[in-house]
Amino acid sequence: MRNRFDNQLEKLNNELIEMGSMIEQAIEKAISALVNNDVELAKTVIEGDEDIDHQERRIESLCMKLLLQQQPVAKDFRLISSALKMITDMERIGDHAADISEMTVWIYGENYVTHLNLLEEMAKEVTVMLVGSIDAFVCKNLKQAEEVIESDERKHYLKPEQEVRNYFLALNYLEEKLNNKEKLSKKLILDVQKLVEKGAPKEKIGLRGPMPPGVLFAVYDSKTGNPDYIPPEYSDVPGLLDELIEYVNTTDDHPLIVAAVVHYQLVTIHPFEDGNGRTARLLSGYIMDLNGYGFNGVGSLEEYFAYDVDEYYDSIQMGLPALYYSGRENPPHPEIWINYFLRMVKLYSRKVCDLQLSSEEEDIAGSLSFLKE
Questions:
Q1: Type and span of the H or E element at 13
Q2: Strand pairing partners for 253?
Q3: Whole-number Å distance between alpha carbons of 266 and 245
Q4: 318: alpha, beta or left, given left = phi > 0 and alpha = psi -120 to 50?
Q5: Per-residue tens of pLDDT for the chain, all 373 residues
Q6: What's the rounded Cα separation, in Å, for the pair 184 and 100?
């Protein structure tokens, strides 16, 4: 049984490599078409995007089989879940290559006002990072993965690979709590955020405290420097968390509504300096799992929230003023966020069902093929 499972994992790696190769070619062709004003080459990239989408579905189906039929251990579960997340990001790179090609078709015949050598250099760097990251994943080469990350000039409070590790630490922790049917508590919230921010400076772990005189704690727009959101005073946070916990553990609301409220409130109360969004997404997922509405490890809603970030933020902000006390503490139209959250649940549920049906159809076809032999 284990040998068959290992063969399936090897097949998964090969399919990932194949998808990476398809995207690498799409990037190279898209930039070449743009630089050389080659509309026919651009059209091949646009048409080839369907092949990349098909490859993503093949890998999704394979992952579904491994998760639902093989009952993988924790190490394998993390690998398969990571592959599911990877192909979502990889498919998006393919979409971007197609978008560039569509622009090439649109501006065909126009004279460029500048050289595009910087774009060519950027594309080469992207390709190197793409190939390197897939190779590192397939070969489980930590050193190569670190080299890819270090080649990215953007800096984070936590390095991306640390964020990923922390996320899985939190998932494993919540899985243990799920086995014990543990209810939401302040300790649970704090423990999850501590795991999410493991390795960060001490001041970023735990409930936020007072700011220095004259300094406003807010979520600022990175471009304008203006505050996008001003959370409640730090002194109000413990009481607000207590109210949320009491609601979750005593309400008769449907579990999906409760999960949506947990997500909204943790993001809105903003109890920590950092890690609020990740903590909110993890714990809303935990509420769903706890009540039998999870996805059994087949990805998460996170990829749907991330697909259109603007829609996500518009829904959770509900058109309200930036200040928490000006409406966000008791939004007049909570259905805006609730409807968005439920729509994401519906979309992802449909995706999981489609994957399962596809997996079953492939199994039936394989069985019939065996009988014919």
A1: helix 2-36
A2: none
A3: 11
A4: left
A5: 567 778 888 999 999 999 999 999 999 999 999 988 899 999 999 999 999 999 999 999 888 888 876 666 767 778 888 888 899 889 999 999 999 999 999 888 777 655 677 788 889 989 999 999 999 999 988 888 888 877 776 544 456 667 778 888 898 899 999 999 999 999 999 999 999 998 888 888 999 999 888 888 998 887 787 888 999 999 999 999 999 999 999 999 999 999 999 999 999 999 999 999 999 999 999 999 999 998 766 666 776 777 778 899 999 999 999 999 999 999 999 999 999 999 999 988 887 787 777 766 665 555 444 444 4
A6: 46
207 phi and psi angles, rounded to 5 deg: -60, 140
The type of residue at 344 is M
**How many C-beta atoms lie closer than 10 Å to residue 77's C-beta?**
18
CA 104 to chain centre: 30
In the block, tokens 């080299």 appear at 147
**Residue 246: CB atoms within 10 Å:** 11
pTM here is: 0.62
